[in-house]
Amino acid sequence: MARGKRRKQRLVLNSPQQKIYEYGMLILGSFIISSSFNMFLNPNQVASGGVSGLSTIIQQTLGWQPALTQWGLNIPLFLLGLRLLERSYSMKAVVGSIVLPLFVMLTSGFPVLTTNILLATIYGGMGLGLGIGIVFRGRGSTGGFSIASQILHKYSGLSLGVSVAVFDGMVILLAGLVFGAEKALYALIGLYVTTKTIDIVQVGLNTSKVAYIISNDSEKLREAILNDLDRGLTQLTGAGGYTGDPRLVLMVVVSQGEVSKLKALVQSIDPQAFIIFSNANEVLGEGFKRPM
């Protein structure tokens, strides 16, 4: 049974529809990244990290076109990803390594939307984070330091946002030497905005709540939550820390709008009940968001 379920999951992940979705996300994300790079960051010499930021520095010092620099740097990083990451991921990294610099070249004529460096840093950072996050949601890579970030994420357990920040920080240090300390400080702001935007795209803005309920009327609460609130729950076995008596703990996940309903429901049945709420950034399953 378990083997059949795993086979079904692999078929879903490798289905033509899933492939189209993933490559579509890769292309869309690459276009957003390149547009943000040319309309905000590169014209204002904000090297907020990554191969794109490094290409900005190289353009300033050596005069090389950013697209050509990105293609050149992506080759050794792709070979590293081919060795350490799964093959399906690496194939998408090939496409990303080619498509992103191509979009950088094609969007180089896009208008510069602002010469205010602070605005360019904020909106450019948001654009980069949005694009990278979209690519990551499609289980892809745009090549470059995205591959290195995915490797670090896979083998260290760090979040994708933090993994990106590690490599981008090194680029910002170099930018400080080339463009000056002030431009590096702006780049740090851009890096922070990019990191936060990536995490938002990954887990979403809708924060659900996990409630742990300890009550002497657990059975009544269980029936009320299932029937009146129409939410599933899990019964956990616990013990009182002082008495050692066995206690039943009800765990239920609710949306933000259902928190007050759950509180009122519990209070109406057992005013002495003990409730703990904690945040759940992403919930997948029946009644919540479906896995992509």
Properties at a glance:
alpha+beta; 10% strand; 4-stranded antiparallel β-sheet; 64% helix; 4 strands; 292 residues
What is the general shape?
A: elongated
Main β-sheet: number of strands, strand sense, barrel status? 4 strands, antiparallel
* Overall strand count: 4
Strand proportion? 5-15%
Radius of gyration: 24 Å
Average pLDDT reading: 84
Unreliable spans are: none
Distance between the termini: 23 Å
The tally of helices reads: 11
The oligomeric status of these chains comes to single chain
Helix coverage percent of residues?
A: 55-70%
Layout of helices and strands:
Blueprint: H1 2-13, H2 16-41, H3 50-62, H4 66-84, H5 87-106, H6 117-137, H7 145-156, H8 160-179, H9 181-203, E1 208-214, H10 218-227, E2 234-239, E3 246-254, H11 259-269, E4 274-280
Antiparallel strand pairs: 1-3, 1-4, 2-3
Helix pairs in contact: 2-5, 2-6, 3-4, 3-8, 4-5, 4-7, 6-9, 7-8, 8-9, 10-11
